[in-house]
Amino acid sequence: MTADGREFPAVNRVTAEHDPTAHAEVMAIRRACRELSTFDLSGAVLYSSCEPCPLCLSASLWARLDAVYFAADRHDAAAGGFDDAQFHEFFAQGAQERDRALPVRHVALATRTEPFEAWAGNDRRTAY
After folding, report:
1. I want to staple 76 with a disulfide (CB 3.0 to 4.6 A). Which of 13, 72, 98, 121 is the partner?
2. Which residues, in sequence order, are CB contacts of 78 under 8 Å at separation 6+?
3. According to the model, what pLDDT value does residue 64 have?
4. Is the sign of the CA dihedral 90, 96, 101, 104 positive or negative?
5. Cα angle vertex 77, ends 39, 101, to 5°?
6. What is the DSSP-derived secondary structure letter of residue 53?
7. Which domains does the chain possess?
8. Residue of 7, 17, 25, 51 with catalytic role
9. CA atoms of 2 and 36, how far apart (whole Å)
10. Dist. CA 73–CA 33, nearest whole Å
11. Contact 52/82 with Cβ under 8 angstroms?
12. Quick check: is 25 catalytic?
């Protein structure tokens, strides 16, 4: 819901769209951004039937939402067959434990900053 009261309802489309990122919260954020022609939802809040997973929390942060409210918690979701405990646990772990679960490696290429330099030099860029 935006600051002016507009609503952008959405549902989980993961299996329908074969898209693991199509969670209801993400779909609502995408819809609001698309319909409002913005990527900054400052002043808006997200109401969800369930506690957002780390993906949805990250999307909420990137969208600059003011708050997130939810009804069922992650344990209720797990009892209903939506067990995302492994993802919550992943982010709660230290770096070594996370690295064992999903190796993420820095590759220091000589050209690694070129895309950012090009972006910084683009006079038509939109900061976000």
Report:
1. 72
2. 84, 85
3. 97
4. positive
5. 75
6. P
7. 24-121 (3.40.140.10)
8. 25
9. 10
10. 26
11. no
12. yes
